[in-house]
């Protein structure tokens, strides 16, 4: 009888497979959906009718799942036994306690055990930060807090009387109030989730109580706009560290995931819609990030189309791939607000945004660590943050006079057709303008990660030496940009080979 279809991976340990043949026992089975990455663990010395499965959940979290057979004579609802994993000095014993419910399918003698597994920190975790070793939970939390807060920079003060470049007359961009329909639509579009922020209120509760919350939220939102103050309690953010790659014991190999209050998300989504409708015509056409109907695909299509047209005309096409360092966390509040004032933001709206950005308190793991305050950058996980960022970087494309550019958020490509050494010199001038813009806006380029790729089918291309701040940019035959591997001939052979190799490895993991 087939209990599970192709949507599941089935792990099992049958009766009699135990090394102790004299023991009576039964088979165990667990089915995991193929959308979850899972693998069977081999536990040395384990002489039980049991199987251990490692399951990778969302946001990089992992769950260790054990399925154990208990003979029919075990008339108990809960079973606790001696440790199932041998203990050593690095891995303390893991005691297992589980409940199970027998279910009979098609009147056959098949028991399906429903396990309610809660998170268990059965490994003693240690972490290194600044060459210091941390072992207990509080110290580890504080180490994460210190590292995540180290990326913030002191922001300059905003003075509305400062001179700024402005092409507008008067206050063109303003938000005076929020309507009943705005709140209803924002709650309706809120994603249902069990994830909670510092306030411990999941979004599905809000969606289920919509009719009782609309008017109170409407009053609070309009009061916030009228007083130009964003509530402090909605600026509290819970931070979860997610492992990237490298050494798992190195604090710097983790990135923070921010979880905001759902009330803050509702308010922000309303403000975002009202703001975007007023500024969408001001955003550079070179920007493809955080814009409806634009994406990484449209960004790369535009670049590919330009490369092909240069191939057809027989010219060389030099592309400078840049890399900004932690740009989202480095946005200077004073410079941002000055730019918003320059494009016509109403002074009341700017004051509200200043309250929204400043004094945001971040907590690691629900205040296990000490709290720390973000002094720069857009709020992570927010609706308004990406829009404010593209408005901050929007004037970057205006500094280029002799070349073209494409943006996907902070991913900048600068390119020009190269027919002679003069064209290369003009492209170098654009790099000098880029560096000056970064200096003026207090952003930092990872020059070591910036590179040059010359697209051409000529036998002898012009290999000009490009520099940023007197540092020579590396030149290569391939570059990975927005997930696609590009080569000088634009045949994508290396990208295809890489994708095929990854596919085979994934298939092999489930064989």
From TrEMBL:
Reverse transcriptase domain mapped to chain residues: 223-486
Alphabetically ordered keywords of this record: Nucleotidyltransferase, RNA-directed DNA polymerase, Transferase
A GO term for molecular function: RNA-directed DNA polymerase activity
UniProt xrefs under CDD domains: RT_nLTR_like
One protein family per Pfam: RVT_1
Annotated InterPro entries: DNA/RNA_pol_sf (IPR043502), RT_dom (IPR000477)
Name the UniProt record assigns to this protein: Putative RNA-directed DNA polymerase from transposon BS
Organism listed in the record: Araneus ventricosus
Gene giving rise to this polypeptide: RTase_5
């Amino acid at each position: 009888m087939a209990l599970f279809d192709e949507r599941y991976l089935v792990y099992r340990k049958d009766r009699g497979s135990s090394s102790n043949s004299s023991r009576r026992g039964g088979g165990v089975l667990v089915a995991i959906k193929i959308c979850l990455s899972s693998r069977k663990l081999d536990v040395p010395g384990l002489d039980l009718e049991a199987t251990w499965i490692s399951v990778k959940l969302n946001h990089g979290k992992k769950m260790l799942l054990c399925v154990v057979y208990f003979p029919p004579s075990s008339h108990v609802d809960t079973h606790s036994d001696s440790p199932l994993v041998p203990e050593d000095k690095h891995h303390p014993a893991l005691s297992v306690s589980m409940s199970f419910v027998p279910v009979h399918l098609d009147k056959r003698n098949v028991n399906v055990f429903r396990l309610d597994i809660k998170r268990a920190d059965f490994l003693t975790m240690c972490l290194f930060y600044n060459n210091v070793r941390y072992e207990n939970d509080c110290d580890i939390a504080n180490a994460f807090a210190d590292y995540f807060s180290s990326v913030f920079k002191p922001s300059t003060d905003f003075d509305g009387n400062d001179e700024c470049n402005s092409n507008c007359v008067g206050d063109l961009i303003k938000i005076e109030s929020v309507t009943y329909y705005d709140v209803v639509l924002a709650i309706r579009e809120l994603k249902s989730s069990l994830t909670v922020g510092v306030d411990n209120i999941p979004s599905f509760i809000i969606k289920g109580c919509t009719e009782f919350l609309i008017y109170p939220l409407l009053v609070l939102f309009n009061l916030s706009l009228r007083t130009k103050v964003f509530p402090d309690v909605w600026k509290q953010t819970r931070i979860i560290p997610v492992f990237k790659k490298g050494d798992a014991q190195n604090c710097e190999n983790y990135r923070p995931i921010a979880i905001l209050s759902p009330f803050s998300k509702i308010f922000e989504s309303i403000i975002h819609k009202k703001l975007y409708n007023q500024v969408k015509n001001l955003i550079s056409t070179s920007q493809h990030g955080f814009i409806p109907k634009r994406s990484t695909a449209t960004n790369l299509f535009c670049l590919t189309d330009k490369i092909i047209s240069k191939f057809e005309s027989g010219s060389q096409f030099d592309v400078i791939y840049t890399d900004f360092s932690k740009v989202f966390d480095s946005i200077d509040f004073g410079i941002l607000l000055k730019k918003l004032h320059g494009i016509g933001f109403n002074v009341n709206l700017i004051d509200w945004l200043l309250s929204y950005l400043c004094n945001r308190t971040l907590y690691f793991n629900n205040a296990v660590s000490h709290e720390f305050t973000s002094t720069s950058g857009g709020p992570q996980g927010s609706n308004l943050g990406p829009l404010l960022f593209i408005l901050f970087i929007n004037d970057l494309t205006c500094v280029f006079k002799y070349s073209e550019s494409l943006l996907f958020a902070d991913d900048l490509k600068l390119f020009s057709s190269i027919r002679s050494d003069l064209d290369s010199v003009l492209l170098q001038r654009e790099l000098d303008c880029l560096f000056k813009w970064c200096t003026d806006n207090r952003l930092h380029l990872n020059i070591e990660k910036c590179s040059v790729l010359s697209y051409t089918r000529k036998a002898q291309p012009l290999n000009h030496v490009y520099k940023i701040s007197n540092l020579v940019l590396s030149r290569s035959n391939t570059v990975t940009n927005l997930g696609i591997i590009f080569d000088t001939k634009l045949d994508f052979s290396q990208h295809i080979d890489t994708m095929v190799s990854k596919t085979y490895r994934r298939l092999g993991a489930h064989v």
